[in-house]
Predict the 3D structure of the following.
Amino acid sequence: MTDPQSTRKPRKGDELEGQIEHFDRKGHAIGTSGVYSVRMRGGVPGDLWKLVVKKRRRHVLDAHRLELLEAGPARVEARCQHAGDCGGCSFQTCDYTVQVAEKQRMVEEALAAAEWPELPIVDPVVPCADPWNYRNKMEFTFSSRRWIAPHEPQGAESAFALGLHPPGLFSKVIQLAECHIVFAAGESIMRTAGKLALEQGLDAWHIFEHTGLLRHLVLRHAVNTDEVMVNLVTSREAPELIEPFAKALLEHHPEITTIVQTINTGVAMVAHGESERTLHGPGYIEELLLGIRFRISARSFFQVNTVQAERLFEIVREEAGVRGDEVVYDLYSGAGSIALVLAASVKVVLAFEQVPEAVADAIGNAERNGVSNVNFFEGDVLTELDATLAEDSPLPRPDVCIVDPPRAGLHPDVPPKLLALGAKRIVYVSCNIHNGAKDMAKLIEGGYRVTRVRPVDLFPHTPHVECVVTLELTGETSE
Ligand SMILES: C[S@@+](CC[C@H](N)C(=O)[O-])C[C@H]1O[C@@H](n2cnc3c(N)ncnc32)[C@H](O)[C@@H]1O
C-alpha cells in the first residue's frame, strides 16, 4: 500500500485507499486519496476502497477496485448477479434515492459549468416510481466471443453468448442469466432465445471474422397494451434456420405478439439492416400514451421508459404554456410523440425530423389518431429552418419551439436560426445537459431567459437524466 506521507507520485500498479464521494456524468465513482482525485468503476458515494492505480493524469488517478474496505451508507445489495461486470446499469449497488440526488447534483453542476449569467433553481428530479424492469426496449447481442468473468475457470466455454457488453468492451458479450431493467417478460424471452439458439445449433456473429447468423435480439413491450415484439437481427435470411427458431420461441412465449427478422449483412454492430420480414403477427406493436395510440415498428424510435415518457411529455406540455391558438414547432420530432401530444392544445404543430422512416411513422400515427393539425417535414433541422426563415416562406413563425435534439445537442448553426425565429418560448428537452447547457448559453446571449429546469429520471441505474428547460424571450441581448 502506498504510504500516504510519501512524496513519490503514485504510479501504475501502486495500491492505495480511496474514499468515494460522488459519481461523474459517465458513471464513474469519484473520490479522494490523499491529495489525489481517484476515478473508478463500481464505487458508491461513502465507500472506502482499496484500489490499484491504472494511470495518473496530473492530480487524477484512474484506478481499479481491489477490495471494498468499508461500505458507505448508500451501498445496497446488487439485485443482479452481473452487477459490476455488465455495462447495462452501473449504479445498481447505489440506493435509488441517492442515485436521484446524484443526478440532481450533476444537473446543477452542469448548469454552473455553463456559466449562464443567472443560475436557475433546478426543480427536484422526478424519480421513477419503480426503478426496475422499466425498459420497454432492450437490445441484446449474440456473440461468438463470450466474456469470461475473473472468477470463472480458465478455458471456460466461450463460443456463444447472448447478453450485453462489459463497460467499454464492445468486442465481448456477457452471457446474461438475468436482467432487471428490461420489462419482466423480456428477461425470460432472452433466456429462452439463448437456450434455443444453442439447442438448434445456430451460430452467433463473430465481430472480427464477420461470420455467424445471429446478431441481435431486440425486445420491445407496449406497456399499456401488453404487446410484445421480438426483432431478430441476422446476417442473412436463412429461412430454413430462422423460421423453426421463431416458431419454437413463440411456443415457449405465447405473449409475443409479433416477430420480425431484420437482415444486416454489413459489418457494423448495429441492430438495423437493409431489409426486414415479418415472421409472426402484424410486424409492429401499438402503445397508448396520453390517449394517443402509437404504432411502433422494428425501426421506430420510441422513448424507452413508458411511464416516465408520459410524465416527460406532460411536463413538456405544461412548459409549452399553450392556450389553444399557438403555432408550435417540434424540432427533432422523431415519430411525432411530442407533436401529437401537443396537437389537441394548440392551433398547429410543424414537426421537423430527418429520418424518413420516423416521419412515415409520425404521419401514420397522426392519421390513425385523427390528428389533422400537425404537419411533418422531412429533413435536417438546419436546412428546414433556413427554408422557414426565407422571406417568401408560406410557413407561419412559431409562438413556441420544442427542441429535442440527440445527445450531441444542436449543430452550432442552429441556435442563431432559433434566435431569428423569435418564438416567445423555447422548451429545450435535453438528454445531455452538458451539451444542452452550451446551446442554451447562446440562446440566453441572444435574448432568452431560463425560467424553469425540470429533470426527469428516465434511466434508473445509469448516469443519464433528461431535463426540460424552459426559456422565455426577454428581448434583452447581452451585446
Ligand atoms: C432525442 S430524439 C427525439 C425524438 C422525439 N422528440 C421523441 O421524444 O420521441 C432526437 C431525434 O432527432 C433526429 N435528428 C437528429 N439529427 C437531426 C437533424 N439534424 N435534423 C432533424 N432531425 C434530426 C433523430 O433522428 C431523432 O429522431
